Amino acid sequence: QELLCQGGEPSHIQSSPDGQHLLVLQKSRPPPLPRVVAFHRHSIGGADLERNWQPPQPALVGLLFLQSPVTLGSWVLAIVWEHGRTEVWHFVVAGGARARIVSVCSQGASLVWCEERPPLDAHSAMSKCAFRFCICTRALEVGEQGVRLGTVRIVLHNSPEYQVLASPQHIFLVPAAASFATTSKFLLIWHPEKAKLTITAPSAGFIRSKVLHSSSESDFRKLLLGSVGLLAGLAPLDIHTSAVSNGGGLLLVGTKGAVNMVEPDGTQRHIFDLEGGPLAQGSPVQLKTFGSILACMLAGALYLIDQNSGRLVEKKILSTKEMHFLEAPGEEDSIQLLTQTGIYSFSFSKPENSSRPEPCLVEMVFEEACRYYQRRSLSSSKLTVEKLKKGGVFQAPVALTAILQHSLHQKQKPARGLQDTYAKLLSTMNLELQSYMSLELLKTCVVCAPESEVESYCEELVEQEVSRVLHSDMDKDNLAYLNSVFASFPKAAWKATKSCLQLQQNGDGLLVARATPEVWKKVLGGLQQEEVGQNGVVPLFELICASFLRFKPKWLPSFVELTQQYVSISWAYSSKEGPEGRVPLYKRALGVLARKNKRSEADDEMELELLLCSKRPKAVLQALHLLISLKRWQRVVEVAEKFSKLSPLLNKEIFTTLLAEFAQHRELDPYLDTLWPLCPAELTASDILTVVLQHLPHSQEDPVPFSSEGNQLTVGLLKPLLQRVVQRPCIQDEMYSDALQSPTFPPPTPPREH
Hints:
The chain has 754 residues and is an alpha+beta fold.
């Protein structure tokens, strides 16, 4: 269809809500007389409506279509002038003439605008003049009987100049280019339903929100009182162009070509970087969203970008630099463009029979294959993705790419055109492909889910990711990735760990794990700390121990005991390949405990349990000395009684340690009936007396038979032990007992035969 616009170029173009009419506002006509022309998009005739204004006439600010529930199926146009007057075809409403409107938008049946009010004093300071703007709103209801205006409500007063942009639920306030220097560092988001203002900055994210209960709280300077220090240190905004997406977010294009999205909650995410270097101040950039596709027009180039992934879908070089995006209701897979020669439609949906894979997915396959082959290559030459694609030597990535483009992008259609070997491989990989598709679907659910469901989706996503990494090569990249997952989602990572290791308590209350040997080897036989480096990444065993300490500390000693049982089965004792051949597992768990910021009594108890669960002689003796230093004598005796049974050597060390303590004080006297049976068989009375005499406390006074302190060791206390040792049969006697046993009298003489 040919657009009949003569005598000037359109500077403002808007489509009616029903998509049937097109409005063109011409400002640069010679002489400068504004004109509005309306066309029916599907007719071949001339303009349906046309209106000219003669001088002197103020400048037009914008054209707005107002929603009217009374007159369904029709549209009403409002024209807003610079001096505040609003004209509604066919009704005219006069406004005040003192204020000057600088920006206006509509949300539903309400107008929202930013107006400049003249200063009360002509000699006001420049800083005060910068804050003479107000953000106002007013209901405008269009009915069959005419137009009814609501009362004017001030949202924000004493503010700098803002450009107002409306989304379905929010109003974005973007500082004007000539705004005051200190106020051009952040954005404001007004939530009309909640009467709340949110302060956000691209360099800092969400800053604060405040509910405006009364008009006294809507003062701009009072709004910033609690955030002045933070706002002063922010970098100035870098905004070249701004627009609102169909999803309700604010699209911002920086002067360097960076495209970002500011969500209504104040968070920001990066989408894409436009080519061409820094953007000049006068170079126009047009933005429009169609479904999940962001269309961006810059210097005759049309960029189609996936908003969710930031991927460039397509780039088209157009023959004209002057064009406008048009509304196309219900058509999210095509773009309508208005140019000087007509209206054109551009479709960006893929054909139904397209089998081309997603470009980023194919690149991901080859990049992963490149890293895999590079690690196993004996050559010193660097392997690149380009060499991998052109070489033809490595067929695995080629086969995987062929399978992906026939399975993931065929919408569950049967594979066609695959080689026989690829078809067999596809049947083998079917479960893996289903897992991949479910994982991608889950990621989509996380992005689109309401806030109440995000946590459950995140837990499921983390569990799948942890399981995937545990079933792949545990290299430095995967280990660093697991560290970031455990740091970002600690609770979900703990649940994923329990699920992957199948940790649970049996009927006796003991911790059991039913993990596969492959998973155990990843947990225990992976990279050690000296191989990981000092960049904050810790091995997987330490990650899991830290998770135990945070969410289930009483399970940690049992877990360490389980790991030692698995190590004893899978690796030979002191094998350099196994984890116990380097730093023992209990020491690694103790290292995690030592890294805690705050030490408590529970941590002391945990240290004891970790030492004892190892059942190593040195660790048991260390725990025993720790208990003695804490004067926990009941626990000392229990540990001695339990671990003396492990080995005769450990039994001798434990008994000698406790005998030395017995010689120094009387704290162990109530437990002597339990301690004396622990005396090793090879200890003689002489050995016992030697230990006692070596550890008797040194007194500054001359020894006396009866001490007044009452804590002196006496022979009476030591007598039961010495009697026990003396009465014990000698080891040599036991060796020859059979030979020494004989009758007291000689046997009778055998009878003689006559």
